[in-house]
Amino acid sequence: MAKQYETVIGLEVHVELATKTKIFCGCSTEFGGAPNTHTCPVCTGMPGSLPVLNKQVVEYAMAIGLASNCKITQVCKFDRKNYFYPDNPQNYQISQLYLPIARDGYLEIESGGLKKKVCIHEMHMEEDAGKLVHDEWDDTSLVDYNRSGVPLVEIVSEPDMRSAEEVISYLEKLRMMIQYLGASDCKLQEGSMRADVNLSVREAGSETLGTRTEMKNLNSFKAIARAIEGERERQIELLEEGKPVIQETRRWDDNKEHSYAMRSKEDAQDYRYFPEPDLVPIVISDEWIAEIKSRQPELRSEKLERYKAEFDIPQYDAEIITESKRMADIFEAATAVCKKPKKVANWLMVETLRLLKEHNMEPEDIRFSPENLGKLVELTEAGTINSSVAKEVFEKIFTDNINPEKYVEENGLKTVNDEGAMKAAIEKAIADNPKSVEDYLGGKEKAIGFLVGQVMKAMKGKANPGMVNQMLKEALQEH
Amino acid sequence: MKNKITDEVIDYVGILAKLELSPAEKEAAKSDMEKMLDYIDTLNELDTEGITPMSHVFPVNNVFREDIVTNGNNREAILSNAPLRKDDSFEVPKTIG
Amino acid sequence: MDILSLTALQLGKAIKEREASAADAVRAVLDRVKEVEPEVNSYVTLDEEGAFQQAEEVQRLIEAGEFTGPLAGVPVAVKDNICIEGQLTTCGSRILSNFKPVYTAEAVLNLKKAGAVVIGKTNMDEFAMGSTTETSYYGSTKNPHNLNHVPGGSSGGSCAAVAARECYYALGSDTGGSIRQPSSFCGVVGLKPTYGTVSRYGLVAYGSSLDQIGPVAKDVPDCAAILEIISSHDTKDSTSVKRKNYHFTEALTEDVKGLKIGIPRDYMGKGLDKEVEEAVRKAAKVLEENGAIVEEFDLSLVQYAIPAYYVIASAEASSNLERFDGVKYGYRTADYRDLHNMYKKTRSEGFGAEVKRRIMLGSFVLSSGYYDAYYLKALRTKALIKQAFDRAFEKYDVILGPTAPSTAPELGKSLTDPMKMYLGDIYTVAVNLAGLPAMSVPVGKDSRGLPIGIQLIGNSFQEKTLLRAAYMYECATEKWHETSANIGKEAQENGKTI
Ligand SMILES: [Mg+2]
Ligand SMILES: [Zn+2]
């Protein structure tokens, strides 16, 4: 009988913090500038330059540490991690090894209907590296230091996860929490959230851990899930063949669905960490911790409860809306305009989610302003437009953030309540469709639907469907 | 010499430090390092039990910057010393094979 | 008036009183440089054109009443590991043979705000690693008092330039004695400030936790005036200390009554040259005669300072020098196969033997398995050394001893045995480990005509106490800068005696 194997997974998650400037210099962290335009002597490792720590980095890191139930290290320091690579201008990364800012936390996740704690070993602050662009023709690489020095926190979990599903659940929980804190936008595609997967397998029931590998270059939840599956199979295959798993760093190629060892004989993996002499210790007082706690924004569970109480929306709605901080923000802002929370919730849960899926977007990518959604709800509630027109207008809001009032006006989409025109259309519909009229009068109530459709068509969709229905029934009775 | 530095150690340190030593330099490096380490080993005469390693001499803590953008576009200055430049980037031998 | 014989303060005063101009001073200094530089080699780079331009601009601002400081218009030389925008900054190394910084060091900005005229960059041991200025890629500097001897190092170029009157004062840097030891060998006044007093922003790092920029001067008042100008609290340097008072010239009073001076017995015994020992005792006597209380005491741990220093300095250096890799600036090897080959060839060709030696040692002591045994042990020793100084300063205001065990060695005699060279730092390195201020003051010459210096060590932030003792000594004795180095025209006129 084939052996049963258990997968043991721990994650190292890097998150780019949402500061305006880099961790050690006054350069902008803005994404996507022309190469080397957000640089200075500090973040390009010029001789004689020195780092000065961005206070906001410490505060974001503390906020994340507290929200993930960590203990804050009240005397914390930076260390140098030494390794040569061109994206790392000093050839050392300023990071934390000995006294990281937070330790011993946990997040509660839900997977397969079960709740479970994933422990956080530690979390540290560090600087990001620059970007390398490879020129296939030239056999050269180009270095851009715009990202060099962008602040990161690295969150290191214990090896507490057992499946890709648990890993995704942990990552989603972490991402939601950090987004709620406003500490990062956590976009996997842009690299502002990145996960390295440490994975080993062992025979089911075994207490000892197997040899693990570390996988890098995972930039979507799908890639993470595929990489976990692929690496699990690779390791099991090795064990079944009686070969050892080598502890190494592997690079996941999502196109080839395969990982490759990254080792070379020039990489000794001996980082020679030592205390960074150019920075002084950070001493975090109880008062500072209390202040960060008091400034902590409302997290998801609190928001969920408040929505139910304050806006009187069902649990189900509140859960879906608070799943993303961006959605929740839109919900509150739109509701403030139209004062119709349930209606706004419906727009978000149905049409917004549909369009996001259709456009392959995340809630964070939403560009329309909540005020426009609020106005749209007002227009619909006042009967100014009918529901099918509203859907059409909403699509325009979603893609182009148009102002619905102006748009409806300019495109003549207002519901027509002109009784004369409607009567004429109804009479015409009855005259043109004797079969349907007969069916309806013969007891087939459903046949009225076709007639309503005909009237709406004649009215170019701008009639109030309730009114059409009402008037049509009356006309048919008189018929 | 109490400390013995092997060829392997010198090669390993060479990889860490990105230095390539000639055979003669290697021999000199071995003997220099052995002498220095023997000398450094005199520190073992000192009882440092319970002494906290001191990295900073003065109790200066919490030196911070505010999160305000102060630097503009320094591209030309930053690239002005580049040994090899291509367009607006530093050019290096290909980093992945 | 022999303009070259003036001190920096005297020249500053003469310029202010229109007895001389900044341009006169630049001309005199550059003539002198042309005369003696072929023999001394103090400079890596001279900025003749720039010096005259600065002189003109400074002169205008002095006359407009904008520059009122005591050193406005006075020519200064800057050690070649301190960045000046657009000016070659080599650190004495091949690897930076074409490097022009894109910004100026804070200490130099402070000089410029005070109206200084920078005339060039001075020679040094490669990346400040050495005690003789012989490890420079740009040739050795010679001791102006005897051209067959070294000027000391690593700030040998700065000290020789001041001693040879090739500038009025200079900036040096001191990681383990690199200002004090060459000052002692060249017969000039050099001061290493308390760690954090002068910004390190723009100083190319050797051992970051030990490095300090400091003044090299003809006499004590100049030294105080320069320190007053260059020290500042700099928000660009996280290790910069905000001090209560930067008015170091206030200490220039002829009064040492009641000042408690301790002479460590452990500094005066084995390994110390007899003539140096005598000179130190004589100098102590002068202070005692003027009212100081002088005692001998046991400082302890003296022999452990050098091994601890070499572990810490080499470890930090190995990391600090990683950035020199042929990617962003400086030298890159001509031919290479791939990235790692490019790194290795660039660095192996770009660095000299002593730098490689320390990078190898530093990488080793930090490598996995050795960190605790070497690096942490050294940091614990550093803590003990600091405690020993703390105890001494409970009893004494100043610690007095020799700056170096001997006077300047002959050229070519030191590098063959690096261990012996390292031992020459025995009295200076502990000061850097403990972050203390210390200065070297000339107190005479040995029988070969080579200068001797004493070292005064103070408690943290007590530069004024040092300056007060040094000033008293200087006032009570002859001013050594008035007997200039015997080179150039004077030497020919006097006949070469050495
Ligand atoms: Mg990391
Ligand atoms: Zn920058």
UniProtKB/TrEMBL annotation, chain A:
Catalytic activity: L-glutamyl-tRNA(Gln) + L-glutamine + ATP + H2O = L-glutaminyl-tRNA(Gln) + L-glutamate + ADP + phosphate + H(+); L-aspartyl-tRNA(Asn) + L-glutamine + ATP + H2O = L-asparaginyl-tRNA(Asn) + L-glutamate + ADP + phosphate + 2 H(+)
Gene Ontology biological-process annotations: glutaminyl-tRNAGln biosynthesis via transamidation; translation
InterPro entries xrefs: Asn/Gln-tRNA_amidoTrfase_suB/E (IPR017959), Asn/Gln-tRNA_Trfase_suB/E_cat (IPR006075), Asn/Gln_amidotransferase (IPR018027), Asn/Gln_tRNA_amidoTrase-B-like (IPR003789), GatB (IPR004413), GatB_C_1 (IPR042114), GatB_Yqey_C_2 (IPR023168), Gln-tRNA_amidoTrfase_suB_CS (IPR017958)
UniProt keyword Transferase present: yes
NCBIfam families: gatB (TIGR00133), PRK05477.1-2 (NF004012), PRK05477.1-4 (NF004014)
Subunit annotation: Heterotrimer of A, B and C subunits.
Name listed for the protein in its UniProt record: Aspartyl/glutamyl-tRNA(Asn/Gln) amidotransferase subunit B
From TrEMBL, chain B:
Pfam families for this protein: GatC
Catalysed reactions, as listed in the record: L-glutamyl-tRNA(Gln) + L-glutamine + ATP + H2O = L-glutaminyl-tRNA(Gln) + L-glutamate + ADP + phosphate + H(+); L-aspartyl-tRNA(Asn) + L-glutamine + ATP + H2O = L-asparaginyl-tRNA(Asn) + L-glutamate + ADP + phosphate + 2 H(+)
Keyword Nucleotide-binding: yes
Top EC class, one word: ligase
One BP term from GO: regulation of translational fidelity
GO MF annotation list: asparaginyl-tRNA synthase (glutamine-hydrolyzing) activity; ATP binding; glutaminyl-tRNA synthase (glutamine-hydrolyzing) activity; transferase activity
Record EC number: 6.3.5.-
Origin: domain of life: Bacteria
Keyword terms: ATP-binding, Ligase, Nucleotide-binding, Protein biosynthesis, Transferase
Quaternary structure and partners: Heterotrimer of A, B and C subunits.
Function text: Allows the formation of correctly charged Asn-tRNA(Asn) or Gln-tRNA(Gln) through the transamidation of misacylated Asp-tRNA(Asn) or Glu-tRNA(Gln) in organisms which lack either or both of asparaginyl-tRNA or glutaminyl-tRNA synthetases. The reaction takes place in the presence of glutamine and ATP through an activated phospho-Asp-tRNA(Asn) or phospho-Glu-tRNA(Gln).
Family the entry assigns: Belongs to the GatC family.
Annotated protein name in UniProt: Aspartyl/glutamyl-tRNA(Asn/Gln) amidotransferase subunit C
Protein source organism: Muricomes intestini
Lineage: Bacteria, Bacillati, Bacillota, Clostridia, Lachnospirales
Protein encoded by which gene: gatC
TrEMBL record, chain C:
Keywords: ATP-binding, Ligase, Nucleotide-binding, Protein biosynthesis, Transferase
Record domain Amidase: where: 24-467
GO BP, one annotated term: translation
Keyword Protein biosynthesis set for record: yes
InterPro entries for this protein: Amidase, Amidase_dom, AS_sf, GatA
GO molecular function: ATP binding; glutaminyl-tRNA synthase (glutamine-hydrolyzing) activity; transferase activity
Entry EC no(s): 6.3.5.7
Quaternary structure (record): Heterotrimer of A, B and C subunits.
Purpose: Allows the formation of correctly charged Gln-tRNA(Gln) through the transamidation of misacylated Glu-tRNA(Gln) in organisms which lack glutaminyl-tRNA synthetase. The reaction takes place in the presence of glutamine and ATP through an activated gamma-phospho-Glu-tRNA(Gln).
Xref: PANTHER family: GLUTAMYL-TRNA(GLN) AMIDOTRANSFERASE SUBUNIT A (PTHR11895:SF151), TRANSAMIDASE (PTHR11895)
Family: Belongs to the amidase family. GatA subfamily.
Protein name per Swiss-Prot or TrEMBL: Glutamyl-tRNA(Gln) amidotransferase subunit A
Species in which this protein is naturally found: Muricomes intestini
Gene that encodes the chain: gatA
